[in-house]
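User: quick one, fold this
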Amino acid sequence: MRALIQRVRHASVSVNKLCIGEINQGLLVFLAIQKGDDHSQVEKLLDKVLAYRVFADEQGKMNLSLKDIQGGLLTVSQFTLAADTAKGLRPGFSLAATPEDGKRLYDYWLCQAEKKHHHTAAGEFGADMQVSLLNDGPVTFLLEC
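Assistant:
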């Protein structure tokens, strides 16, 4: 399981020109579910995302988490993060979960996120989405579990 997290001033996701999720200051998470991932990995990675210290404290150091600042969490499924890019000029997707497993675990992520965090929003699994964001920093990290 991989999560590309970006610290944002604001972010939104649209499907068919309709905004279906948006946040102000917080984290935009592009989530990739891989073969063999399960509920325990979802919970471990989600807890890490919520506690990862990427926001500045009074001294300007990255010592505050999303929970500390009570920011928004916008999750967008992105199976392309599971791509194998080691060989050739075309990505392979043999590492990605099946669409059925991916959706099941993505939905579980969203359910757990809503239980653990006050402000969550999400994209639509498998949809053609347009994501808008103002990256803050920029600050971007790839977390794996």
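User: anything notable?
Assistant: The radius of gyration is 15 Å.
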